[in-house]
C-alpha cells in the first residue's frame, strides 16, 4: 500500500498496483484527469512515478488505480455509498479510512477499483470523494 518517507517537502514511496493491460490503460487515463489540488490540498511527488498513483499534501491522501477488490467487498454488497455517480466502499483502519471506487471493468462482469487512503485526521473526506467523482467517471465510464 503506502510507505511514507522523507520530510514534508520531499517525495514519498507508494507501491503502484499491477493491473492487467486493459485496466492499466484505463488507469493511465485516470492519471491524466486528476486535479492538481484536492479540496485545496496540493499534489505531492510520488516515488516511483506512475500514472497509477497520485497523492496530495502531507501526511498524504493517496490514490491508487487498478488495485484488487478490497477485503470484505462483494458485488452484491449493500455497504457502498454513491457520491455523484461513483460507488465507494469504505474500510476504516487505525490511521486511515480507505475508500475504494468501484467502476465497470473492460470485460463483462468485471470491475476496476480505485483506492483512496485518507489519514483519519482529515475530517471532511467526503469532499475528496466529490472532487474525484468526475475525473473517475470520465476516465472509467
Report the structural category.
alpha+beta
Largest sheet: 8 strands, antiparallel
The termini sit apart by 25 Å
**Overall morphology:** globular
- The helix content, as a percent range, equals 10-25%
Approximate strand percentage: 35-45%
Q: What are the SSEs and their pairings?
A:
Layout lengths: L1 E2 L8 E3 L6 H13 L3 E2 L2 E4 L1 E2 L5 E4 L4 E7 L12 E4 L2 E7 L3 E9 L6 E9 L5 H15 L2
Describe the structure in your own words.
- It is a single chain.
- The protein has one domain.
- It is 20% helix and 38% strand.
- The chain has two helices and eleven strands.
- Strands 3-4-6-7-11-10-9-8 form an eight-stranded antiparallel β-sheet. A three-stranded mixed β-sheet has the order 1-2-5, with no helix packed on it.
- The N terminus is likely disordered.
Quick overview of this protein structure:
Helix 1 packs across helix 2.
Q: Which features does this protein show?
A:
141 residues, 2 helices, disordered N terminus, alpha+beta, 3-stranded mixed β-sheet, 8-stranded antiparallel β-sheet, 20% helix
Amino acid at each position: 500500500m503506502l510507505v511514507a518517507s522523507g520530510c514534508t517537502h520531499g517525495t514519498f514511496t507508494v507501491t503502484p498496483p499491477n493491473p492487467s493491460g486493459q485496466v492499466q490503460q484505463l488507469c493511465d487515463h485516470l492519471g491524466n484527469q486528476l486535479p492538481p489540488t484536492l479540496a485545496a490540498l496540493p499534489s505531492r511527488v510520488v516515488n516511483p512515478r506512475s500514472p497509477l498513483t497520485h497523492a496530495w499534501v502531507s501526511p498524504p491522501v493517496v490514490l491508487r488505480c487498478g488495485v484488487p477488490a478490497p477485503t470484505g467487498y462483494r458485488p452484491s454488497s449493500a455497504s457502498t455509498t454513491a457520491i455523484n455517480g461513483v460507488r465507494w466502499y469504505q474500510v476504516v483502519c487505525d490511521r486511515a479510512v480507505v475508500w475504494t471506487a468501484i467502476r465497470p471493468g473492460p470485460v463483462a462482469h468485471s470491475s476496476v477499483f480505485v483506492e483512496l487512503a485518507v489519514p483519519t485526521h482529515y475530517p471532511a473526506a467526503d469532499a475528496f470523494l466529490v472532487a474525484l467523482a468526475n475525473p473517475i467517471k470520465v476516465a472509467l465510464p
